[in-house]
Amino acid sequence: MNSTCNKDWKKIARANGLAIPDAALERIAASLDALEADFRPLARALPPETEPALAFRATLAAEPEDAE
Amino acid sequence: MTLLEAAAALRRREVSSVELTAAALQRIERLNPSTNAMQTVMAEAARQRAKQADEELARGEGRGPLHGIPIAVKDLFCTKGVRTTGGSKLFEDHVPDHDATVVEWLRAGGAVLIGKTGMHELAYGITSSNPHFGAIRNPWDRDRIPGGSSGGSGAAVAAGMVPMAMGSDTGGSIRIPAAFCGVVGLKPTYGRVSRYGAMALGFSLDHMGPLTRSVRDAGAVLNVIAGHDPRDETSSRRPVENYVPDIEPSIRGLRIGLPENFYFERLDPDVDAAVRAAFHEAESRGAEIVPLPVPDIAAINTVARVILMAEASALLEPHLEQRDQFGADVLALLDQGRLLPATDYINAQRLRRAMQREFARLWLRVDCLFTPTSPVTAPRIGETTTTIGGQDEDVRLASTRLVRAINLLGLPAVSIPCGVDRRGLPIGLQIVGPPFAEAPILRVAQALVPAEVPVPHL
User: Fold this and answer.
1) N or C: which end of chain A has fewer CB within 10 A?
2) In B59-150, which ranges are continuous DSSP H helix?
3) ipTM above 0.90, yes or no
4) Residues B373, B352: contact at Cβ < 8 Å?
5) Is the Cβ of B406 closer than 8 Å to some Cβ of chain A?
6) Residue B52: how many other CB atoms lie within 10 Å
7) Which of chain A's residues have a Cβ under 8 Å away from the Cβ of B234?
8) Does residue B439 surpass a pLDDT of 60?
9) Which one, of B175, B167, B139, lies nearest residue B375 by Cα?
10) Model's pTM, two decimal places?
């Protein structure tokens, strides 16, 4: 299987209800394809146990143990 | 005059804040028409504040080295009662009812806010050729860009309008203008300086920091703006320290990383020579140069771009139906961000964690890394591609190639002038340290920055 394939950005835009003119989509397609080609292999190689670098606290206020 | 020189002159009563402010306003009046560095000048408010600062100083109520010093902030820092545009037509009439934390703390430190500096639209680009408020021009060569997105801050400091202007850095936006304008630009560790009240571009990538004429000035400003702010959820509680290095600090025994891959590929030869000369200078002062491989920076840059595009587009989504309110380059980036699936954003944040762990191992071997800030010196206004080593490269991607990864990793980095190219344009050296190593990187920067930083003839 190819590690990357070009996406149909116009179809994706329409499916998502995005009002991006076709001419604008044509201008950015090459840039998005290049980003896809660079990013997709990295994402595929991620070990499942790797958590995202996002923080969420169950309480709204910072807790004392947050102190560094 | 640097900020700390002006502060010393103020303390000796050789000059007053009113005089410093008047001189800054005169310089802005003379040089802003040709540079467009200042977006908004707050002349009357600054004069009043300067008078007040002089009175406080006369009563012995000094608030520190910034007291009475005229400064500027990038036009994305909210300023109570003063227009804050973010370089965007969307916000051309936006007048906040509060100050950003950075502005509040600078004012509390006695600084005289003289104006707001121009910037790349929405901080989303590096040329500062703003379609709504005009191109900002590099004081070294007004046909060239000052870099961006904090282009007005870089130009204002280089032109001697103010000794310090605040910038923000999401993918190099403090360090690139610092390099192109021949000034010092400090991007602190993520969480070290509050983001509250600064218009966001990429929540998890935005950093606030100063552009100055000297390394010690950057440290003096960090002393005022660093610290925990409960209004910024990502603000660190780690204690602050004194960030102003000695005048002649020792770097004997310091281990400086010389990247064996990525950072010295595809450079303008003058940039390559100037940065390598900085290694020799450091070695001659007793530092140990450690050649070593660095993690895959191209991959880190890719991940940073995915995160930035997703965060910026999410943030600006409510405005994206008003397509005529955006410049073409910014709109193209925002459109791209809307087309990325949520899974890409999450996976990019997972990759970020893995890359952070991998990069952390580097700090077991070295105390800091030296790299060029930009592979090229300031491009001409309107240029979209630059040629390096016979290869064409997009100006934005080339300019951010060596700095963007550091935003993803949240590491502190400073760009200092390290020479000029064959055309006389400034070259920047980037010094990167481990998390919260602002004081050590400013120490090494101070040891290496030329005693007389070249300034443009204006």
Assistant:
1) N
2) 101-108
3) no
4) no
5) no
6) 15
7) 55
8) yes
9) B175
10) 0.96
Q: Which residues from chain A sit within 8 angstroms of residue B356, using beta carbons?
A: 53
d(CA B148, CA B171): 10
Residue in the structure block whose two tokens are 């010094």:
B431
Which residue in chain B has the smallest CA separation from A49? B350
Which domains, from first to last, does chain B contain?
3-167 (3.90.1300.10)
What pLDDT, on a 0 to 100 scale, did the predictor assign at position A4? 52
> Which positions in chain B touch A13 (Cβ < 8 Å)?
338-339
Q: What gap in Å lies between CA B425 and CA B379, rounded to an integer?
A: 10
Type and span of the H or E element at B105: helix B101-108
- The tokens 């809307």 sit on which residue? B338
Question: Residue B380: phi, psi to the nearest 5?
Answer: -75, 150
In this structure, the strands spanning B288-292 and B255-259 are parallel
Residue type, B179: A
Q: In this predicted model, what pLDDT tens digit does every residue of B292-325 receive, in sequence order? A: 999 999 999 999 999 999 999 999 999 999 999 9
Give the best residue of A9, A11, A20, A22 to mutate against chain B (max B CB count within 10 A). Answer: A20
Alpha helices by DSSP H, listed for B121-204, are 151-158, 175-181
Segments making up each domain of chain A, as ranges: 9-66
B320 Cα to chain A: minimum distance (Å): 9
Residues of B with active-site annotation: 74, 149, 173
